[in-house]
């Protein structure tokens, strides 16, 4: 019978066709992760590293490494781990004291009733005192253990969250364009919380103490009676096998549920960011329907998960009960034939009860770790994302621009399946010159700016600052000389003062006010209730478009950059405000290299040089009068705006 096609079989077939594994290797597993693991084993045994071009490959590698990566976070906290292990051993030992005291009392009382005991009240008092002391000491050590465990887990959670957030901020621009902010932040939050849960709840509240308790119970039972010891151990491997089998089914469902949850989070964030657009178009009901639809998909996945959990709990209960019955029968027969006392019977049954807790908890760990590992893996996806734009070894700090910026035969595309955004572009911009970039939407103007900021590296050619390739320069020193006023100014939900000072946080209040006056945002700011301490809301929602634009210009002015980029900086201003802004920026752009991108030609007519872009290429360069004669694109755009 022909084997059905699965993602795993397709993955293996792909490896076979590329001669990375022998054709004889067959996929016979139903579980696609296990099939991929088999293929990976075949590769690793031959020291072959396949390309990471398969989702199944990635999933299989995650399954192997994620749990150990979480445990690897403990290596920097070895002293704390040693203390926790020591405390757990003491607690496990104290847990064994009470059952033995009870066994001792039962033997005394049974002997008393048949006239073979001479026990006195002092024995009972001493036994009660022993139970009290063991219990109090156990609580003291458990409190210390819980405190150190909690502190360690919180430290690691905060550390991994900060690592992931830092990585997110440092990732390349294309990653941010393709990934939803809400979805990514959700992955980081869930991943960090799940890391905390795995370490705190599972490793140190369950696995370590319960494992030691189980080992202590089995060791004592083997010492007292080897048959009862083996009867107590028998359910554990069956427990783990059943749990492992069912948990493997859960893993895939949980990841699918997480993927839907990421989509839900991303779409909810998108709606929240565009809530006024939703209301203007009366699309509230449609957005609610979309959210409900996604919630229902998650609900269906949760029902599947619940079904597996219930099967698991029922199976565990049956296995545990069978083991308990075996111990009761075995211990009872030993008493019946006079080989053990009634106290021994009570001890065996009590210790089995203590052992059952660890067994059920250990199997519960296996089932729940699968769920939380799915969250952790999403976070590791971010941590594992390569930083494509980074300082090379030996990168030097950029000195203040003195001579020129140069694009030398630069070609760039955003991805392999996209068209060239810039093609063989060569441009020189002398230091201190005002230049304008003109062209239709999509002609390459914004890409030019992105490359200058080194948000991306070109596939061909080089970008030079005073003769130094950007790839040889430290990014911080490059960006420290540049200020940008983008098409859409994004403000933080902070005060106006903090937003203006964002690029220069050490600026004095007087400098902030001076920049605000130059950008013409001082007058409206002082009319606000809290003036410069007014919080502008998420993305500056409490300000108008023109006000946000002026705050963005003030931010750029305060930075006092060597290179100023105005990317359609007046697109949200009325005619009067635009005129005033032009007067302010005329003074600001002096003595610095300024690059202006605008569809409104009134903002660029004072440029020393105008570059006309068309379909990613430089069509022409020159002054306005020169371009009207030699650039069809410039002439057409100019005529459209000044025809009246």
From TrEMBL:
InterPro entries: AAA+_ATPase, ABC1_TM_dom, ABC1_TM_sf, ABC_transporter-like_ATP-bd, ABC_transporter-like_CS, P-loop_NTPase, Type_1_exporter. Keywords: ATP-binding, Cell membrane, Membrane, Nucleotide-binding, Transmembrane, Transmembrane helix, Transport. GO terms for cellular component: plasma membrane. The lineage of its organism: Bacteria, Candidatus Yanofskyibacteriota. The keyword Transmembrane helix applies. SMART domains: AAA (SM00382). It is a multi-pass membrane protein. Residues 405-640 form the ABC transporter domain. It comes from Candidatus Yanofskybacteria bacterium RIFCSPHIGHO2_01_FULL_45_42. This is ABC transporter.
